[in-house]
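From the shared-data thread, chain only:
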Amino acid sequence: MTSEFVSKVALVTGASGNLGQAVSRRLAAGGARLVLVDRAADRLEALAATLSSDNMTATADLADAAAVDGLIAQVEARYGQIDILAHTVGGFTMGTPVHETPDDVWDKMFALNVRPIYTTCGRVAQHMIERAVPGKIVMVLARAALEGSKNAAAYTASKAAAQRIMQSMALELRDRGINVNGVLPSIIDTPPNRESMPNADFSKWVTTDDIANAIAFLASDEARSLHGVSLEVYGRA
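Structure, as tokens:
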């Protein structure tokens, strides 16, 4: 265990997912007190039981400003403030060209990949400003944000929008002592990805620990001079 995050409170969204668990363990190993947020309360409790750090669990609709405000109030009541936000929530859908894709796919991608970032990161930023917290906000984005892709227009558009939010917030908050940055993974080595692409060379993919380490770096004081960075974590994929 290291001490880089001792005295820090880290809120991890999507905490019970494959990536969220890796991020939670990495921040806990650095001494952070954790706020584990996801939709599945039972999975959160199971994760919390495996961590040695002080932590709390909560469920919330991260696209709803009132729900996020309620979550922040719970954290303030227990820990006083939020020093780090690691936002790992997102989703992926592809398979058809734009002219064959129903509108609900577009709505789903923006509901998963854009609205929660805009709402959750925005509300946590407001909390940091009001409490004069020199905080760190790190968003998991995607390499898909950088260009369009065949049969994945809704997904790539949503990831591009998320990246623009990150960059805008970085400019808005850098003079307030708050660092906002993003991590851009390529294909992540998870059981669902292996199942959907069984013939791929998994050794080229990035691991959840690779991404967790990148997030930990951006959440640390070592990244205090970084604002609006899209840290590429591609492995060999």
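The beta strands are 9-13, 33-37, 55-58, 84-87, 136-140, 179-185, 230-233.
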